[in-house]
Protein: Uracil phosphoribosyltransferase
Organism: Slackia faecicanis
Amino acid sequence: MAFENNDRVIVVDHPMVQHKLAILRDKTTSSKQFRELVRELAMFEAYEATRDLPLEEVVVETPVAEATCSIIKGRKMAIVPILRAGLGMVEGVLDLIPAARVGHLGMYRDEETHIPHEYYAKMPEDIAERDVLVVDPMLATGGSLVAAIEYLRKQGVKNLKLMVLVAAPEGVKTVLEADPDVVLYTCAVDERLNDAAYIVPGLGDAGDRIFGTK
Ligand code: URA
């Protein structure tokens, strides 16, 4: 399904990203290469997700003359991976934003109500003042990401962006409806979810492929 970019869903359609995503999807790609690609894609996506950072002018002395340059205007950022697969994206974002703090959020789904709850949360203490990038490679039903959004809003987070690699249309709809301000970055919006809540065509179980488990 072709998905139109809009101001809340940004599909990162750069040729390098799409090329790497094709290799990521391939079932013959090794765990080692899969992990490297997740990291690289997360870095490219973070590049897009930080495009609106405010700049300020500074004067730098080059070996030749003074140059008026732009630097990022003191924004504090945090990366919040959803355990476990989100961990695979953290290093890629840190490659671009080395000063970012990292919070961790673990979710489990209640067997009876099917509602996801956090079982582990460890955030930087000033999380409310930080611009937060939530990372999770797969946006399937959207349940975990909605729970993550609710958790972070309760902590006072105002600027919240979601970064996934592959999304299902059902999940996109769910997260956008859950929060009027959240913005989603993804490399692809696929066809649908199957009965087992896997994304079709997707890439399988991202956590298992990152960590070489089954
Ligand atoms: N989580 C995954 O890892 N893959 C899917 O297709 C859906 C959820």
User: Anything to note?
Assistant: The chain has a mean pLDDT of 95.
